Amino acid sequence: MSAAQVMKAINKRVGTKKGSFALLVGIILFSATSGPETTLTLHFRVKEEDILTVQFEKIEADDHFFVLNLTEADMALIEHSFALARIHEYTGVSLVGIDHGNCTVRLNKECIQQIDPYNYVVELPFSALKESIDSTLVSTYEKAVLLQVSVYADNKHLRTWAAYLGVDIVSVDVTQKYMTVLCSYEELLALHLSGFHTEVVVDLTGTAKSAPHQLGPEYHTYEEVVSELSHIESDHASVAQVFSLGTSYEGRDIPGIKISDNVSTDESEPEAFICALHHAREAATVEVAMYTINYLTDHYAEPGYEYVTYLVDNREIYIVPIVNPDGKVYDDSGGSSGHGLYWRKNRQPCTGGIGTDLNRNYSYHWGGTGSSSICTSQTFRGYAPFDAPESAAVRDFIQLHPDITVLLSYHSHGSLVLWPWGYTYDPIADYRDRTVHQIIGRRYANYTNYVAQQGSDLYLCSGTTDDWSYGTTQNNEIPIFSWTVELEGGSFYPSPSLLLVICENNCSGALYVIECADNPYKVLPPSFGEIPQLFDTNSFFVAGNTAYCTDVLGTAKIAFGLARGGVTENPEGRTNTILTVAEHDTGNVIIVGGPGINPLAQEFDQKFAIIYTYNPGVAFQIACETKYIYLDLAHYPSEDVCIVYLGEDSSRNMMLVWGYGWRGTYAGSVLMGDSTIWQTYENAHMLMVRWTDSNGDGLVQMGEIAVESYV
Fold first, then answer.
1. 604 and 641 in one domain?
2. Is 648 a catalytic residue?
3. What pLDDT does 362 receive?
4. I want to staple 353 with a disulfide (CB 3.0 to 4.6 A). Which of 163, 279, 311, 375 is the partner?
5. Residue 210 counted as domain residue
6. How far is CA 467 from the centre of its chain?
7. Strands 271-276 and 404-412
């Protein structure tokens, strides 16, 4: 029985009578009972009265959390009685996945009471019940078809619950802790009755019909894109060639352009794929794509633009400005500058409506959380992966071009750079692939001042372009590293006055990604396993001019390790005042001693975002790349801490070793003097180290040194 059928049966047979409702639920659950070893029963109570009893499949458990599985029908039973957002508020329960008709949730053990090993009570206030919520508060909008609504949601789990309800999430403001959604009155009511705090910003019903004009001239129409690409090909025939990605549902070409020297030849060069406008209303994405195309072709072989010439000569760049031409034409037909039809999907009919969300139609984990099986939903995923001709065309093209190593998919709006995964909160499992996505994504964000993060840090979302392009190639020697860029502007149709800055900044980011296409792994920081190669030539130890003698002794410890590890030319010793400008600018440098006594440590702490905080007599902390190490100064000097950081700056290698006191620095040096440590942490580039004087002799010994965390 489907969730909808269960709800229909419940409403028909028992209405809102709690006792009958609980009895019916018990009957349903009894018929689906599994063995007690793998099940867990939750009794939802309000004012000591059982409102609902649901049996879950227990997936895993630890000291703090249960991960539980239940059918969507059982989920509908909970949703029938309770406001999901308020259950989350009171219990911390979070939705972590939907797959093949099952929901997976994560529940905090501290929020439930154990009856016996298989039965638990969830005690909730009356305000968690749907019947406690006054639906008349939103009845003013009962006839509205399209509303722009602000929804309070301060974390990804709450936003995922909103996505589960099927609303069209337009953007997320992570700093102000709300998201903007477009919805009908029925969807607004569902949000309200689910306990979300909502505020209607504007009623957009009829807006498009009252302004049936094209977008302003600053925006390209579909026809103008096709025409301009043709002109670009004519004007730059040696480096530009128009192609069709495929055909849309209504028979339009999906236009694209290849940019490369020897453009008519398929050379063995790294390839980059850039696409825009999966969603018809996201007009600014077309402008970024067209600006980038013109920038590359107009400035090729032009003095002062050697970087552009290098990219065009050494890459094959494919740019598709409009993946969704039918949706674009439809959206433009009902809009004026600033007010389109807000159409999102393609124009392929489905049962009861029109349109598939192309960015939910890709096959990798298709059908999961953040997509809908209902045709009229804005996130309708289609009836099968790639049953939309537009997404299938993207798939076919990419599969025919195995040299593609980087992909950018432009969306709007939100000022974000996102990388996989979107379908799960789990990060990419492969350390190197995850780090490449993070580094390139963050560097792109430096050009645009966007927030860079994993896609699911917004909310869970499945069947997306970037999950598919990376997910299906992740086992290749070089996978397709993939990012979704959500543009700025605060609107699908931002003011034309903002377009130039949006285009310029994102073009710069795109050029950087294209440059990385030859080997995206080149952005990885050096790792401890590579130390013998990193400091084999043109290398220097640098201690502070007023350094502790143990800092100098520490360099000797590291030098000993380098010699045993195979370095043929040991680094020369320097102080910060003796190190020459040439050595500083081009040499590989090992800095021993902290920023208080070594100016180079201060300089490169800033470059590598190593941050320390000092509360005199109380505490000291070092933080870097989401890791930190804390020292309670009441334990000093019998305890000390240190950071060892290996990085790259301007094509030379750097290692920083410094602690709060001399013992911390010396502990890090002793550790780095042992080449077996390099192999233990061969894939790492940062260690947080703690020394504890276990025998009370005040001396630093290897057995007293522990790596507390690493990256």
1. yes
2. no
3. 98
4. 375
5. no
6. 10
7. parallel
